[in-house]
């Protein structure tokens, strides 16, 4: 597998892990930061140790884990002042309501809060808490104070909480979103796509039947959004055209929200010229031939209405044969049968350079949730010179590898 870009070489990160359910995501965050060349040293609050162990944190960070303010050994070796001095950036994840309150008010009664007060380095907080805790006036007051003090924030996102039935704003940013924020703040990374413009489409489209009904599909936008974010991390100027999704806009990307296939095509064409186009959206092939302006009423004895469908514009083929065609055009093909054959046919018909084919059948065996809506993907990259089968991996990893492939194909900016 291609190693991730060394975007964080020499970056020294002090990760302060607070006591929230999202602490488990820090294990992945440590891995992601380190594989990009960062060194990661961790401080865990007492509460954090109720959720994950210093043993796993130490194993992943390959360093001693600091937990106590009054630890003779730690004070002798490093000390809370040196802990912050020897870092380029302090990251607090999960940023609990408690840690935010302490920092906003200058408390220093444990190692985490003392290090945060003792530092003159930039601080990045990834808040994570129940939506009611996040919305509480005290937390919002602390947020405003911290922002005024120059503290940086990533997230929180809107979505489902770990507690069953809870949803809203307060979910911690995903590890790769935190990595992107760290990269933006430490800024010593290579940007092979700097100066390049890439258009990405993502999500489903909704095709209107009447004011309350539409035809849709199961696309979540996770893969397309991850690709847009990965391209932005490599320095591209990314224009994401997104259908209706329930995930947040990616960091550092310009996003246009559309609903229908025709609106998506319009937004994509308006964004030309571009160096590359990645067409990930699951665009509806058909739409109702007539859009009815009043809600269709159920009439006793009349049975079900008949929906006449008409073909939607083929956005990928349109761009693949456009007079302003980007140098690199990549399409996605969601197939439930004859994956390979259909991808090859699509490649030629649509004027694409690559088709990323994925098996979206229910028995594809990919992760919980399947490919559509799930977090994992297994793809075959079909090009004119041959094909490359990638093993099953997370959608973020697919995004990283694809962004790297795009950077390699486009080559250095002239
Ligand atoms: C099961 C459980 C989950 C919790 N999740 C969160 C959370 O996501 N965010 C938060 O701010 N506090 C959460 N708390 C409360 C904190 O653990 C508590 O405020 C603690 O004192 C925070 O300590 P720290 O800020 O030093 O890590 C949770 C508590 C429990 C028991």
Automatic annotation (TrEMBL):
Location of the DNA/pantothenate metabolism flavoprotein C-terminal domain: 193-408
Region of interest (Phosphopantothenate--cysteine ligase), ranges: 198-414
Keywords, comma-separated and alphabetical: Decarboxylase, Flavoprotein, FMN, Ligase, Lyase, Magnesium, Metal-binding, Multifunctional enzyme
Coiled-coil intervals: none
Gene3D superfamilies: CoaB-like (3.40.50.10300), Flavin prenyltransferase-like (3.40.50.1950)
InterPro entries according to UniProt: CoaB-like_sf (IPR035929), CoaBC (IPR005252), DNA/pantothenate-metab_flavo_C (IPR007085), Flavin_trans-like (IPR036551), Flavoprotein (IPR003382)
Regions that span the bilayer: none
One Pfam family of this chain: Flavoprotein
Flavoprotein domain span: 12-183
Cofactor binding, per record: Binds 1 FMN per subunit.
Record-listed E.C. numbers: 4.1.1.36, 6.3.2.5
Pathway the protein contributes to: Cofactor biosynthesis; coenzyme A biosynthesis; CoA from (R)-pantothenate: step 3/5; Cofactor biosynthesis; coenzyme A biosynthesis; CoA from (R)-pantothenate: step 2/5
Residues engaged in binding CTP: 285, 295, 313-316, 332, 346, 350
Catalytic activity: N-[(R)-4-phosphopantothenoyl]-L-cysteine + H(+) = (R)-4'-phosphopantetheine + CO2; (R)-4'-phosphopantothenate + L-cysteine + CTP = N-[(R)-4-phosphopantothenoyl]-L-cysteine + CMP + diphosphate + H(+)
Family: In the C-terminal section; belongs to the PPC synthetase family. In the N-terminal section; belongs to the HFCD (homo-oligomeric flavin containing Cys decarboxylase) superfamily.
Function of the molecule: Catalyzes two sequential steps in the biosynthesis of coenzyme A. In the first step cysteine is conjugated to 4'-phosphopantothenate to form 4-phosphopantothenoylcysteine. In the second step the latter compound is decarboxylated to form 4'-phosphopantotheine. Catalyzes two steps in the biosynthesis of coenzyme A. In the first step cysteine is conjugated to 4'-phosphopantothenate to form 4-phosphopantothenoylcysteine, in the latter compound is decarboxylated to form 4'-phosphopantotheine.
Protein name: Coenzyme A biosynthesis bifunctional protein CoaBC
Name of the gene encoding the protein in the UniProt record: coaBC
